[in-house]
Specification:
This protein is of the alpha+beta class. 29% of the residues lie in helices and 15% in strands. It has 2 domains: 77 residues, Beta-grasp domain (Ubiquitin-like (UB roll), Roll); 85 residues, DNA polymerase, domain 1 (Orthogonal Bundle). Bound molecules: FE2/S2 (inorganic) cluster (2 copies).
C-alpha cells in the first residue's frame, strides 16, 4: 500500500493510431494491458509478458517497442501504432500484403508483432542502422543489402511457435522491395 499522500494512479492521454484516448491508469499498467484491456485494441498479442517473444511489438514514435515492458504512463504523448493502425482503410500495407502473399504465418498469433517489427526493421535499415549481421558497419558504407541473414538477425526478437520463419524472411524481403520508395 502506498504511503498516505502518494498517488498510485494518473489520468493519461495515449495517442494510438491517430486517435486520442484519455484514461485513468494504475502506474504499474503496461502499455500492452492498456491497449488490450482498456482500449480494446486486442490485435497486439500477449505471449510471454516479459520481453522475450516480441508478440506485443508496437511502434512508438515510429520505433518498435515491446509493449509488455513499456509502462503506459511512459507512452503518454508519444505516437503509438498498433497492428490496427497499419492498413490504410481497406488497403493492406505492403508489409501485410507480403505476409499474406508469401504465407508469413500459420496460427497468426505472432503476426501482429512480426508485422510491426518488420515495419521497424525497414525504417531502421533505411536510416542506416547496422545489425549484428552487418559486415561493414562504417557509416560511409551505407545500409547493407537486406539479405536473409540481415533479416533473420533484425527480426530475431520475434518468435514464432509455428515455425513460419522461412516465409516470414521472404515476406520481409518482398516488403523491403515493395516499399523502397516509401520508407524513410
Ligand atoms: S509479450 Fe511482450 S515480448 Fe512477449
Ligand atoms: S504464426 Fe503461429 S506463432 Fe507465428
Amino acid at each position: 500500500m502506498a504511503p498516505a499522500g502518494i498517488s498510485t494512479s494518473s489520468s493519461i492521454t495515449l495517442h494510438v493510431n491517430g486517435e486520442k484516448y484519455t484514461l485513468p491508469v494504475d502506474h504499474r499498467t503496461t502499455l500492452l494491458d492498456a491497449l488490450r484491456e482498456r482500449l480494446d485494441l486486442t490485435g497486439t498479442k500477449k505471449g510471454c509478458d516479459q520481453g522475450q517473444c516480441g508478440a506485443c511489438t508496437v511502434l512508438v514514435d515510429n520505433r518498435r517497442a515491446v509493449s509488455c515492458l513499456t509502462l503506459a504512463v511512459a507512452a503518454e504523448g508519444r505516437e503509438i501504432t498498433t497492428i490496427e493502425g497499419v492498413a490504410d482503410g481497406d488497403e493492406l500495407h505492403p508489409v501485410q500484403q507480403a505476409f499474406v502473399e508469401l504465407d508469413g504465418f500459420q496460427c497468426g498469433y505472432c503476426t501482429p508483432g512480426q508485422i510491426c517489427s518488420a515495419l521497424g526493421v525497414l525504417q531502421e535499415h533505411a536510416d542506416g542502422w547496422p545489425s549484428a549481421a552487418t559486415e561493414d558497419v562504417r557509416p560511409e558504407a551505407g545500409p547493407p543489402p537486406l539479405t536473409p541473414e540481415e533479416i533473420r538477425e533484425r527480426m530475431s526478437g520475434n518468435l514464432c511457435r509455428c515455425g513460419a520463419y522461412v516465409s516470414i524472411v521472404r515476406a520481409v524481403a518482398q516488403a523491403a522491395e515493395n516499399t523502397k520508395e516509401t520508407v524513410a
